[in-house]
Each structure stands twice: as C-alpha cells, then as structure tokens.
Amino acid sequence: MAEEKHVHHMLEPAEDPLPVPILRDDGTREPEETLEKQAAGYAAEEDLENQRPDLHHVRSHVSTHDSPVIHQNEHHEHGDEIYDRFSPRRKIAMVCVLSFCSFLAPISSTSILAAAPEVVASFDTTGAIFNISNAMYMIFMGLSPLFWGPIAQTYGRKWPLVIAAVTFTAFSAGSAAAPTLPAYFVFRMLTAFQGTTFLSVGATVIGDIYRPVERGTAYGWFLSGTLIGPALGPFVGGIIVTYTSWRDIFWLQTALAAASSIAVVFLVPETIHHARKADLAGLPRKEQARKLWSWINPWRVIVLFRYPNLLIAGVASSSLVWNMYSLLTPIRYVLNPRFGLTTPLQSGLFYVAPGCGYLVGTFFGGRWADHVVKKYIKKRGHRVPEDRLRSCIVAMGVVLPACMIIYGWSIEKEVGGIPLPVIVMFIQGVAQLFCFPSLNTYCLDVSQKRSSEVVAGNYVIRYVFAAAGSAACLPVIERIGVGWFSTISAAFLVAAAVATWFTAEYGGAWREAIDKGKSEEQ
C-alpha cells in the first residue's frame, strides 16, 4: 500500500485535483475516503522535501525502475501513461517550436562577434571592453535559471516561456537601438537573462512529454538550436555587417523573437505534471507566502549541487560549453591573420564547419544515447539513470580532446592549410551532439519531480564556464598561443570524461547514500 501511495503522489495531475482511483491487488478500488486522506497529506509531504531533494532513481519518473519491464513495449514502465497526453505530432510540433526558441539566445551570444570592430568603432571603445560585454551576456545567461527554474516548477512551463519570449523581443529591439555603450550593456544583459529561459524551461518540457527511453532523441533535436545558434551566428553576422550596419543583426533577432513569441503562445501548451501552486489552495495568506518563498527561492537550485552526480554532470556540460565558446569566440582574431582573411564574411565562413557538425550530430547523438539506455535495460532487466552517461564518454574523453589539440597546433605551427581546421571543427561539432543529450537528459531522468530546478542548476554552472571561456580565451591565446590554450581545453575535457565515467559507475550509490542521510535527519 505504501508503494501505491507513492505512485499516486507522483501521478498527481496538474489540472485535475480529484484523486486518481487506485486498484488493490484483488482488483477492487480504494475507497474515496482513503484517497481524500492521502491527498490531504501530500502538501505536508511536499513541504518536508522542499529544502533537500530526493534524487533516488525510483523517483526519476512515476515508475519504480527496478520493476520488470512490462506491457506491449519492452521498454514500457509502470506509470508511463502520463507521457501519452499529447499525440506524437503534437510533441514534434512542440519540440520544433522549443528548438527554434532555444536557437535565439545562443545565436545572440555570437552573432555580434563578426561585427566586433564595427561595434568598437561605433561606441569609441576597445576590443577588451567589447569582450567584457560578451562575458556579461554569458554571466546573465547563467543567473537566469536560478530565477526561472523554481518559477517554472511552481507555476508551470507555459507562462514563463511566454513572458521570456515577449521580453526577449523587447530587449533585442533595445540592443539594436542602444544609443550609448552603457545602454548596449544593459540591454544585452537583459536579453541574456530572458533568453536562457528557453533553454532551461524548454528542456524541462522535453522531460514532461517524453518517456525516459525516448528523451535522448527528442533532446538531440531540441539541442540542435542551442548549438547551431552559436556556430551560425557569426556567419550570419558576417554577412550583415559586410553589407549594412551591425545594428541590423539585432533587428533580425527582434523579428525572429517576435515569431517565437507567437509560436509559444499558440503551439506550446502547459505540460507540467503537477504545479506546486495548486498546493496553496485553502491555506492562510501567511502560510501561502512562506511556502511560495521556499519554492521560488534560488537557493533551491544551488543546494542540488550537494549531489556529486549532478555537480559532475554540470562540470562535464561546462567543459563542452567552455570548449565551444573558447573555440568560436577568437576565430576572427586567430584565423584571419593565419590565412590572410580580410572581411567579416570570409572569417564567418569558418563558423559553418562546426555548425554543420552540430546539425549532423542532431540525427545521431540523441538516438545513440537512447540506444545505450535500451541496451542496458536488456542487460539489467531494469533502467538505471546513470547508464545513459556511458554513451558520451568516448566522444568527450577521446574525440573532442583530439580535435582540440589538432586544431590548436595546426594553427600554431601553420600546417594543414584551411582544410585541416575545418575538418576537425566539423568532427568536433558532431561529437558534441553525442555528449550534450546524454548529460542533459540524465538530469531529467534522475529527478523528474524537480526537473526544472535540476536542469536550471546545470545551465547555471555551464554558462559560468562559458563566460570564463569567452573572457579568457583571447588574452590567454595572446600570451601562450592557440596551441597550448587548446591543449588546456583538451585536458579539461579528459578530466570531465573521467569524472563522468565514475558517475556512471557509482552515481547510483552516491544518491542512495545522500538520500539515506536525508531520511535519517527527517
């Protein structure tokens, strides 16, 4: 009966407050009075768990993962019916909209790079100050999930996405029309703060609508926007700044953001399984305020890093983002003198290589992650969230470091001509899509109940490293050279891969030990 109560709690619907009938072992239904008593106790249980999350893998969604796989699909688990609320076509439409939205904030982070000298001239500043504006953009991308993650877990996914889309549009227009350098800084930071909502909340929507064994594929398509954007941005920016003003980069961004606002309003429904705001009904105002603050407090996101498996997943994602931005940010400064390029458009073409790699990787990376999960389900007889991490270890620990070392030293020693860096940048793009779906989807698998906050924490740490990479890459390259800088980035990736392997092997035991300590304290 205790297991039935747990399953009932995890299946509590977002919009229908009535208890869901539970079948006893003999086929009869629980009396409605019993169900009402159970429902009355759920709010109290939720309050006890607010400050310290339970990440035991049986709560990664509504099933117990140690149960045998049953029903018509060999990978179907008890409780998976909650993912059948939307038709496959509706899910695909939602993923397409969210992927387009997730394209906007990252492309804004790099599209202006191709116009760096022009922006510097317009505001009569220096390249170092311009790079600080890009680093601040990344920092605010990292701060945003601390706010929007808990909000989305409390009020649902729909309206945070709508608010973010509308305000992102307004702040993009402000960036385009900025009359002074301080105004440019402010609008850029506000744009970053709102744009990251698409990434963190959009990722949570994927976890709301897809079964664990399907999420990797869906996540691969969603991530295509977040990764193609940074690579395509400088190419598009290079074309625009070659023929017109750098301000038109932001006007184009404004138009795209307006289209995303319309798409989110009409094509993305509410997907959350249970919004916490429903638990406030009938409580005194003072108690409502207390609970609400405990739910939306940004500390809820930070405290999740007490789980070493989540911290390692965040650092591993950060190594990938550090690698991506430290590669893309200095291209115009590094490759232009190496190959004698003279226009923004010429250097912008180099960004096409990793962008094509990200696009190709979209077709394979997520599917590979799901394949590995299914393979280990057959081997074990049940699903363990950490098995998903095994799908990214080779790409992160071998392929990406090798690409970075070849890229850096071929530029440093002037060997291989143009084809060699282009080829390794393409391979690196493909390899990144074999890593991100595994790491991001693992965060959803390990804590469906607090998925929005777990994903938010992952984005916080990764964009802190992205800001560091964007700000540090050019000064460090000027001091030690692109070869040694690429070697440092490769070492970071290898260390992250080793830590990810340890998480795949021992992450389940880590979670159980912390959850046991939590239970003893309570």
Automatic annotation (TrEMBL):
One Gene Ontology CC term in the entry: plasma membrane
PANTHER family, per database record: MAJOR FACILITATOR SUPERFAMILY (PTHR23502), TRANSPORTER, PUTATIVE (AFU_ORTHOLOGUE AFUA_3G11760)-RELATED (PTHR23502:SF64)
Any Pfam family the entry gives: MFS_1
Organism: Friedmanniomyces endolithicus
UniProt feature, compositional bias: Basic and acidic residues: 1-12, 23-36
Residue ranges annotated for the Major facilitator superfamily (MFS) profile domain, each copy included: 94-507
PROSITE patterns from the UniProt entry: MFS
Entry protein name: Major facilitator superfamily (MFS) profile domain-containing protein
Membrane topology: Multi-pass membrane protein
Keyword Plastid appears in the UniProt entry: no
Start and end residues of each stretch annotated as Disordered: 1-41
Keywords attached to this entry: Membrane, Transmembrane, Transmembrane helix
Residues passing through the membrane, by range: 92-116, 128-147, 159-178, 184-206, 218-243, 249-268, 310-328, 348-369, 389-411, 417-439, 460-477, 483-504
Subcellular location: Membrane
UniProt-recorded Gene Ontology molecular function terms: transmembrane transporter activity
